[in-house]
Design brief:
Layout: E1 24-25, E2 39-44, E3 52-57, E4 63-65, E5 71-74, E6 78-87, E7 90-99, E8 105-107, E9 123-129, E10 133-137, E11 139-143, E12 148-154, E13 157-165, E14 168-177, E15 181-182, H1 188-191, E16 193-194, E17 196-199, E18 201-203, E19 210-217, E20 222-228, E21 231-234, E22 245-254, E23 257-265, E24 274-276, E25 284-287, E26 290-293, E27 301-308, E28 313-319, H2 321-324, E29 329-331, E30 352-361, E31 364-371, H3 382-392
Parallel strand pairs: 2-8, 7-28, 9-15, 18-24
Antiparallel strand pairs: 1-29, 2-5, 3-4, 3-6, 6-7, 9-12, 10-11, 10-13, 13-14, 14-16, 17-21, 19-20, 19-22, 22-23, 23-31, 25-26, 26-29, 27-28, 27-30, 30-31
Length: 394
């Protein structure tokens, strides 16, 4: 598995004919809110610089912005901020749709990286592990039996080695990789530390299958360990670095309807273990590059995503609760964006589509998503996305 573990999506769908990708929220704030609110919105970048930035005010014409811009002025009451980033040969197109009052500064809504900076590489690193389990460094390898030999593809530079098996976690730090290498043998019985097991209780799951994924982001690595049930096996506080991020992801699989909890665990503090899930999204339909709902959505941030299956490129609009108040439609509508390239056009036929709502509750993000079909997972640099989400939270 490549180290560019990317952001999870859930399905492959089928829709209509080829269109120029467009992102627009149909409708807007009610007429009594459509007054002028002059403001300057600060811009922050995460990852490589975008290749295109534009914005528009309250459904007006798109206006170009310098890709190095650190702020832009809007008259309100709402705006849409567009950014296009490159992820190797893929593109990530994001639209942030906000009320001016939502935030005084925002991250650009796309994430980019250049080949070689997101993980992977050409240096072979290997070794042996006594127990069955999982090993991460740059990329990952696993075995259901032990002892076994792992083989990793690692980019040159500084790394950690992370391993999990037999309910034990291991991290080795300060490893510099420049040439092919064989790491010392891993024996979790002598070198590992027992996992910190946390049993979560999810209200509202019904009979839908439940599972967990523990994400451990060290300075240079991203380890993700999955299991059925609702007990998350976190790395023990003693081995988690000061800059590390530990996330317990709780999944409830309802086919096309998926509900999740992302809990950002803080070492040294008692974990929150009980959550009430958001309801399933009902009455959602996808037509071409448009999502429509007939049942009221939970109050929260709304995302409509379309993923081009030919190369895993992403197109998404993320709207604040205030921006979508009173609306029932989100449409990809990018006509007349200054600097738009034909190569970025999206064919919605056969693309994966999803509509989701997320709500931040303390150190957790609760989400509910309806997808065009079930059973497909598309990872898109999940390491970067998690750090970005953590930086974006209040």
């Amino acid at each position: 598995m490549n180290a560019n573990l990317l952001l999870s999506i859930l399905a492959v769908g089928a829709c209509s004919s080829k269109t120029t990708p467009k992102v627009n929220v149909v409708d807007g704030p009610p007429p009594d809110e459509q007054h002028t609110i002059p403001a300057t919105i600060g811009l922050k970048t995460f990852g490589a610089a975008p290749v295109l930035v534009a914005y528009r005010e309250h459904g007006g014409a798109w206006q170009g912005l310098a890709t190095t811009a650190t702020e832009f002025a809007v008259a309100g009451p709402s705006y849409e901020l567009l950014a296009v980033c490159m992820q190797g040969s893929r593109i990530d197109v994001g639209i942030l749709a906000n009320l001016v009052a939502d935030a005084s500064s925002v991250f650009l809504p796309c994430f980019g990286f250049t080949p070689g900076t997101g993980g992977g590489g050409s240096v072979a690193v290997g070794g042996t592990m006594k127990q069955a389990g999982h090993v991460w460094m740059g990329s990952d390898d696993s075995s259901a039996t032990g002892p076994w030999t792992y083989a990793l593809d690692v980019s040159a530079g500084d790394h950690e080695l992370v391993a999990f098996g037999a309910n034990q976690w291991l991290v080795r730090t300060g490893i510099a990789i420049s040439t092919p290498a064989t790491e010392p043998a891993i024996d979790l019985a002598t070198e590992g530390t027992a996992s910190h097991d946390v049993a979560f209780v999810l209200t509202g799951a019904g009979s839908d299958p439940q599972s967990t994924e523990v994400d451990w982001l060290t300075d240079h690595e991203f380890a993700a360990e999955t299991a059925t049930g609702t007990t998350a096996k976190l790395p023990a506080d003693a081995i988690v670095g000061a800059n590390d991020l530990v996330v317990a992801n709780l999944f409830v699989d309802g086919g096309a309807s998926q509900r999740t909890v992302e809990y950002f665990y803080t070492p040294g503090t008692p974990p929150v273990t009980a959550f009430t899930l958001l309801p399933k999204l009902l009455g959602v339909t996808f037509t071409g590059a448009t999502a429509t709902w007939t049942t009221a959505l939970p109050a929260g941030k709304v995302s409509f995503r379309v993923s081009r299956m030919s190369d895993s490129s992403n197109y998404a609009v993320r709207a604040s609760a205030g921006f979508v108040a009173g609306t029932t439609t989100l449409a990809l509508d990018l006509a007349n964006v200054p600097g738009w390239m034909p190569a970025w056009d999206l064919d919605p036929a056969g693309a994966y589509k999803s509509l989701g709502v997320s709500v931040d509750v303390g150190d957790a993000t609760l989400s509910t998503t309806f997808a065009s079909s079930a059973g497909f997972t598309l990872d898109r640099n999940k390491r970067a996305a998690l750090r970005h989400k953590r930086l974006s939270r209040p």
